[in-house]
Specification:
Elements lengths: L2 E6 L2 E13 L2 E9 H7 E2 L7 H9 L4 H9 L17 H13 L9 E4 L6 E2 L3 E2 L4 H10 L5 E5 L2 E7 L5 E5 L1 H9 L2 H4 L3 E6 L5 H15 L4 H10 L6 H14 L9 E2 L10 H6 L2 E2 H8 L17 H5 L5 H17 L1 H4 L3
Parallel strand pairs: 4-10, 5-11, 12-13
Antiparallel strand pairs: 1-2, 2-3, 2-9, 3-11, 5-10, 6-7, 8-9
């Protein structure tokens, strides 16, 4: 497998020879890219949650039911544009830089997992469709920043625009950040294996990201719940609880208003006073409450007291309303304790 910078259709591309692998009837593709090229072309999209923006949006709705209906219906239409990465851990980046500079066998044999937005060629699941040169040229005139796949002389090639942000990294951002920090004489000698997940929509990429990180790495559980809820088209138990927790955090009458760490961490740009109020995580609340809507909980000591409401769509908002009333009562009775973070 080789890659090279080439000129085609009057613009520059990185031409990557790729091979197809099939797993569970789905295809993905593997190619080899010099680190210097990948560092110029890649980007990541950290998941973000801004409580001020969300609370302002919630305040525009007539009532909590309208806002809830928006979250579980219209909000899902934004899935293709949502981001799902975790933020860099600087300590991890420094560890990788040290590893690269001090170890004789500083190898990265596992692949970087990435995606490219394609103008052609692969449908959902990696089914190859033919594209002739004329059709490609016309398509690229309208979509100058997109990649394309084409077969040439019996081999498959991925053409990636040679510009920033052409490759979206799904897994491997810390390795790449460590390589960016390393000395030039080191990264000039590195090739990287890259697995391209192409032809799938954003919800599939997000699910792949949090599945890989949940089963193989230590990642903040609140972030995993956030991604599961944000990228799910189905209203399963975790997605429902995620939307309920958002209401608790974004509706002004809630005792948890602006107090929940939705991504499991406190944003850096908050004031010390705002940071001190954020004393509870989304993951804690979901783990504590999910049994209240689970039919499986019938088999345990915890009773699914909200299961009936969860199973009846027009009554689901009553769960959030009950939680707000319940914890407001606790806040009133034990106000001094409630305000003591």
């Amino acid at each position: 497998m080789n890659s090279e910078k080439v000129k085609k259709f009057d613009r520059e591309f990185l031409k990557v020879e790729i091979v197809s692998l099939t797993q569970k009837n789905k295809n993905f593709f593997v190619g080899k890219i010099p680190t210097t090229d990948l560092l110029k072309l890649y980007t990541v999209e950290p998941a973000e949650y801004d409580v001020e923006i969300q609370a302002a949006a919630a305040a525009k709705f007539k009532d909590d039911a309208d806002y809830y209906n928006y979250l579980i219906t219209k909000d899902k239409k934004r899935i293709p544009s949502k981001a799902f990465q975790r933020k860099l851990k600087e300590g991890r980046v420094k560890e990788i830089k040290k590893f690269l500079e001090n170890e004789d066998f500083a190898l990265f044999p596992n692949t970087i997992i990435a995606a490219c937005d394609l103008v052609n060629a692969y449908t959902d699941g990696g089914v190859l469709k033919s594209s002739n040169e004329k059709d490609l040229k016309d398509l690229l005139e309208e979509n100058k920043n997109l990649s394309f796949v084409i077969e040439e002389s019996g081999k498959t090639y991925l053409y990636i625009p040679y510009k920033e942000n052409s490759i979206l990294v799904i897994d491997g951002q810390h390795r790449l950040a460590g390589l960016e920090e390393a000395k030039p004489e080191i990264i000039n000698k590195y090739d990287l294996l890259v697995s391209f997940i192409i032809g799938f929509d954003r919800s599939v990429l997000a699910k792949l990201f949090y599945t890989i990180n949940y089963t193989q790495k230590s990642v903040n559980k609140s972030l995993l719940y956030h991604l599961s809820g944000e990228f799910s088209y189905e209203l399963d138990e975790i997605t429902f609880m995620h939307e309920t927790i958002k209401i608790l955090n974004e509706i002004e009458i809630s005792p948890f208003f602006k107090r929940i760490k939705m991504l499991g961490t406190v944003p850096d740009d908050m004031t010390d006073e705002e940071k001190s109020r954020m004393s509870i995580s989304q993951a804690f609340l979901i783990d504590y409450l999910v049994g209240s809507i689970s039919s499986e909980a019938k088999k345990s000591k915890q009773k699914p007291i909200f299961l009936y409401y969860y199973q009846h769509g027009d009554m689901q908002i009553e769960i959030a309303r009950f939680l707000i009333k319940y914890f407001n009562a606790i806040k009133k009775i034990r106000n001094r304790d409630w305000e003591d973070n």
